[in-house]
Design brief:
With 556 residues, the chain is of the alpha+beta class. The strands form three sheets. It has a four-stranded mixed β-sheet with strand order 1-2-7-4. Strands 3-9-8 form a three-stranded antiparallel β-sheet. Strands 5-6 form a two-stranded antiparallel sheet. A hairpin with a 2-residue loop joins strand 1 and strand 2. The structure holds protoporphyrin IX containing FE. The site of protoporphyrin IX containing FE has 25 residues, from helix 16 and helix 22. Its cofactor is heme. Keywords: Endoplasmic reticulum, Heme, Iron, Membrane, Metal-binding, Microsome, Monooxygenase, Oxidoreductase.
Length: 556
């Protein structure tokens, strides 16, 4: 071959490779931005996305927590509104139509919009179009009035590959309805009164445990201490098992419980799904690893076997789960589970999924709320003293013993917990997926089946129009008068409607009993590691402190 032909053919090869790489890059780019015209086509105001990341780059790169990312988008949508009405063409048009001077029109519109803002705005979660809601009235429609169109959260569950993901929080359709109905009786007031004894018992153990801890150091990460307390209490209340998280650092169930907490809230799965659900299926990515699944399944099998063999009937979550296996049995039916007609869809693995979810929610939610609350109280010693005085006074008045009714009757405690959940809503964002074509009320925008909507709870709770000076911790926001003066749907720490948190009464009870015991025994103050603005964990959907919650704890 002549040198010229050789040069030409190597150039051709280079050109082919270059062409292939360029086409691949173009294809990849087009794939990344393919969905980004969605909201424009629908005529919905949207926020400009960046390729592949959409509007949630900081969540994908784990630089900021979801609560703050969606808050930024929520606030930005108001800026967009200003930008739109500030545009000269729009003002001139109005000037011609209304025959009013331009400055008057501008100030009238701005005044109007400060109070209204956009009702909703289109964003992109990676490649997935999501409608971010801002208007409490519209939120009420989605969560309650038009629930039949929005019954699901759009979380992918895989019974075969990742059975522990099939818990009530994630399920949809008939499976969700079936399990919800079966488990609801576990949270009635009469059941909670029984549960109170367990929580009270473990709050005493918590005090003993802290006594030991404080012998070596008076500065503690209250967050990690409290999660062990709530795990012990939940294990006992829900399943009648001793977790021993507080006293035994090698407790296997406590280790597994912690792994469920970490895996469940992780942002990775949801983001991967938003980029490509097909890729998630292809990679067979699962939320929970096999050993965790096996562990929970074995525990459930063991508890069921023990209760069946020894004819043990307890009024706890485990018993309801066992009864849920029976097609005909209702919650408090005295018929023994072993004798009833079993539902083959509701096997031990399905029970294990519910059990792991209860252990996680019961441990994580109350402990995180208590930690944020104690941090606020450490920064406001006067409020801490008032709250302690309320608990002490109630205890003295009732013969030196706190009871279920007394704890729930503490008024300041109630407001302090409500304000904690306002400032730190743990589920900072609530998702719903449209399951029937839906026209947004008072608009011509139709949402197709499969469209995701997002309720940015953290942003609503931090919107100065709903809560003036939102970073200030002020329990008076929850006085009866103040509560009544606000739209109910600006406060959603437990969600609303048929999918409202099933365990909220239990969670709040744990928080109140734990706080009462702690305040009676200790004073909490700031230390070198404390901060009034704790950094949030950017790896999880749940609003939680990134670096623990360090406080100085002094025996009273
Ligand atoms: C301070 C404590 C708690 C907070 C702030 C909280 C928050 C929430 C929120 C906001 C939702 C609604 C999510 C949505 O609508 O998409 C929810 C649902 C749920 N929560 Fe809680 N939760 C707490 C405690 C608990 C506890 C203690 C349990 C169980 C023992 C629990 C179990 C559940 C379950 C199973 C759901 C799903 C309900 C359904 O979809 O039907 N939560 N929680």
């Amino acid at each position: 071959m002549s040198p010229y032909i050789a040069w030409q053919s190597s150039n051709m090869e280079l050109l082919t490779i270059l062409l292939a790489v360029t086409s691949l890059c173009v294809l990849l780019y087009r794939y990344c931005v393919a969905t980004y015209t969605y909201w424009k086509r629908k005529g919905v105001t949207h926020i400009k996305p960046s390729p592949l990341f959409g509007n949630v780059k900081d969540i994908i790169l784990r630089r900021r927590c979801p609560a703050l990312v969606f808050q930024q988008l929520y606030n930005k949508s108001q800026d967009y509104c200003f930008f739109f009405v500030g545009s000269p063409n729009f003002l001139v048009l109005l000037n011609k139509v209304c025959l009013l001077p331009l400055p008057t029109i501008r100030s009238l519109i701005l005044y109007f919009l400060v109070f209204l803002g956009e009702r909703y705005v289109g964003i992109y979660q990676a490649r997935t179009p999501v409608l971010l809601l801002r208007d409490p009235e519209l939120i009420k429609h989605i969560l309650v009035k038009d629930f039949s169109c929005f019954p699901s959260k759009g979380i992918k569950t895989d019974f075969k590959g990742d059975p522990l993901s099939c818990h009530l929080f994630n399920l949809e359709g008939d499976q969700w309805r079936y399990i919800r109905t079966k488990l609801t009786p576990a949270f009635t007031s009469s059941k909670l009164k029984i549960v109170y004894q367990h929580i009270d018992h473990y709050s005493e153990k918590l005090i003993e445990h802290l006594e030991d801890q404080l012998k070596t150091n008076d500065v503690l990460d209250v967050y990690s201490e409290l999660v062990n307390f709530t795990m012990d209490a939940t294990g006992s209340c829900a399943f009648g098992i001793e977790v021993d998280a507080m006293t035994d650092e090698n407790s296997e169930i406590s280790k597994m419980g912690h792994r469920v907490i970490e895996a469940n809230g992780d942002t990775f799965m949801e983001i991967l799904n938003s980029i490509s659900p097909r890729l998630t299926r292809l990679l067979k990515v699962s939320m929970f690893s096999e050993d965790v699944t096996r562990f929970f399944k074995n525990i459930i099998v063991e508890i069921i076997r023990y209760r069946d063999e020894n004819q043990v009937m307890k009024k706890d979550v485990m018993q309801l789960l066992m009864l849920a296996r029976n097609k005909t049995c209702v919650a408090d039916d005295p018929v023994h589970p072993a004798t009833a007609d079993k539902d083959e869809d509701f096997d031990e693995v399905m029970l294990a999924a519910q059990a792991a979810m209860f252990l996680r929610a019961g441990s994580e939610k109350a402990s995180t709320t208590m930690s944020f609350c104690l941090n606020e109280l450490a920064h406001q010693p006067e409020l801490q003293s008032q709250l302690r005085a309320e608990v002490e006074h109630a205890k003295e008045e009732h013969g030196g013993k706190l009871t279920y009714e007394i704890v729930l009757g503490l008024k300041l405690m109630d407001r302090v917990v409500a304000e904690t959940l306002r400032k730190y809503p743990l589920e900072s964002n609530i998702y719903r997926v449209c399951r029937k074509p839906y026209t947004i009320p008072d608009s011509s925008v139709e949402l197709e089946e499969g469209t995701k909507v997002l309720i940015p709870v953290y942003a609503l709770h931090h919107d100065p129009q709903n809560y003036p000076d939102p970073e200030r911790f002020d329990p008076d926001r929850f006085s009866e008068d103040n509560k009544n003066s606000r739209d109910h749907f600006t406060y959603l720490p437990f969600g609303e409607g048929p999918r409202v948190c099933i365990g909220f009464r239990y969670g709040v009870l744990q928080v109140k009993v734990g706080l009462a015991a702690l305040l009676l025994n200790y004073e909490f103050s700031t230390c070198a590691l404390s901060t009034l603005r704790p950094e949030f964990n950017s790896r999880t959907w749940v609003t939680s402190p990134a670096n623990g919650m360090w406080l100085k704890v002094t025996k009273r």
